[in-house]
From TrEMBL:
A GO MF label: histidinol-phosphate transaminase activity
Protein name (Swiss-Prot/TrEMBL): Histidinol-phosphate aminotransferase
Enzyme class: transferase
Gene Ontology biological process terms from the UniProt entry: L-histidine biosynthetic process
Species per Swiss-Prot/TrEMBL record: Candidatus Ghiorseimicrobium undicola
Phylogenetic classification of the source organism: Bacteria, Pseudomonadati, Candidatus Omnitrophota, Candidatus Ghiorseimicrobium
């Protein structure tokens, strides 16, 4: 029966998501579990909650296919045309749309060896070849990536900040990378964690949209606290988005997600609060890890990659027994690291308390 599947699917390793809270409670008989595994926001916007309540009465109808009202709000927010946006069921779907839209069967994709796993997984599902370039000091090596470009290169994915390392490439590095880049190579900047960045040299990639071969991915799953609603968007020149719209599935963003995202854009107080608590709690975790003598990678995002003395899966399982879900790094090949999302103060204290016991 295995032969019924396409050849490129038979040995594919699917994306491994963070373990759900209710599953851990059920399996281990725990009453209280905290999840610090999936880089979610610890806060939910009250305006989003109200938008969800108002939208429930219309769930018997198909959603508005073009995300009209959300499109108008984003257009105003960024000073761009409504046609510069393409919406998806999270950034994951947009990665698929980009590959299906632009990468021919004999063309290639380049990304980092340790980055968001979906770039490589989705490419393999679509039977497209992926070239991966090693990180340099846990960071995207843009010079090495540029050297890998050939006549077959079509799309380059750059996660900035990078998941799972939390590192970023700065404005100067991006400017140098894009200088002289072939016009037929599309560069995708995946900026899911953009709103958490606190660095003056982080690049403003919107200024490169006029190059016509740049796509920027953003999401409502992180700082906006809407991971469960699945909505993200791509920003690009209309010469690219008009083709992506032909590939995007109809009604791919549900009506509740659309209304919630529009409400979230108006709730600037929520974004400020989520950013403030994340930056403050990141410092708390840094200080606690420093006192414990534990190494970690400084992060521009809302998570920290932490070095552990034991195997990553062992630490993950041991922490589960105490009701703390972290992310093991086995699928990334980082067998002596765990990734920990920055949560609320009480959650972070609980993590440190348990982590100390396991040292």
């Amino acid at each position: 029966m295995k032969n019924l599947a396409r050849r490129n699917i038979r040995n594919l390793v699917a994306y491994k998501s963070g373990k759900p809270i209710n599953e851990v409670k059920r399996e281990l008989g725990l009453k209280r579990v905290i999840k610090l595994a999936s880089n979610e926001s610890p806060l939910i916007s009250f305006r989003v909650k109200n938008a969800i309540k108002r939208s429930i009465s219309e769930i018997n109808r198909y959603p508005e296919g073009s995300c009209f009202y959300l499109r108008q709000k984003l257009s105003k927010k960024f000073g761009l045309k409504p046609g510069n946006f393409v919406f998806g069921n999270g950034s994951d779907e947009l990665i698929d749309v980009i590959i299906k839209t632009f990468v021919e069967q004999d063309e290639e994709i380049i990304t980092s060896k340790i980055s968001f796993l979906e770039y490589e997984i989705v490419a393999k599902i679509n039977a497209r070849r992926v070239i991966t370039v090693p990180l340099k000091s846990f960071k995207y090596d843009l010079k090495a990536i540029k050297q890998k470009i050939t006549a077959k290169t079509k799309v380059i994915f750059i996660a900035n900040p990078n998941n799972p390392t939390g590192t970023y490439v700065n404005a100067g590095e991006v400017r140098e990378f894009l200088t002289g880049l072939p016009a037929n190579v599309i560069v995708v900047f995946d900026e899911a964690y953009n709103e958490f960045v606190d660095a003056p040299d982080f690049p403003d990639t919107f200024c490169y949209l006029n190059k016509k071969n740049v796509i920027i991915l953003r999401t409502f799953s992180k700082v906006y606290g809407m991971a469960g609603l699945r909505i993200g968007y791509a920003v690009a020149e209309e010469c690219l988005t008009k083709f992506m719209e032909r590939v995007r599935p109809p009604f791919n963003v549900n009506s509740i997600a659309q209304a919630s995202a529009a409400a979230a854009l108006s709730d600037t107080g929520h974004v400020s609060a989520a950013r403030k608590i994340t930056l403050a709690q990141k410092k708390y975790l840094y200080d606690a890890l420093d006192r414990l003598g534990v190494a970690y990678i400084p992060s521009a995002a809302n998570f920290i990659l932490i070095k552990v003395a034991k195997n990553t899966v062992t630490v993950f399982r041991e922490m589960l027994r105490y009701g703390v879900i972290v992310r093991d790094m086995e699928q990334y090949g980082l067998n002596n690291y765990i990734r920990v999302t920055i949560g609320k103060p009480g959650e972070n204290r609980k993590f440190i308390e348990v982590f100390k016991k396991l040292l």
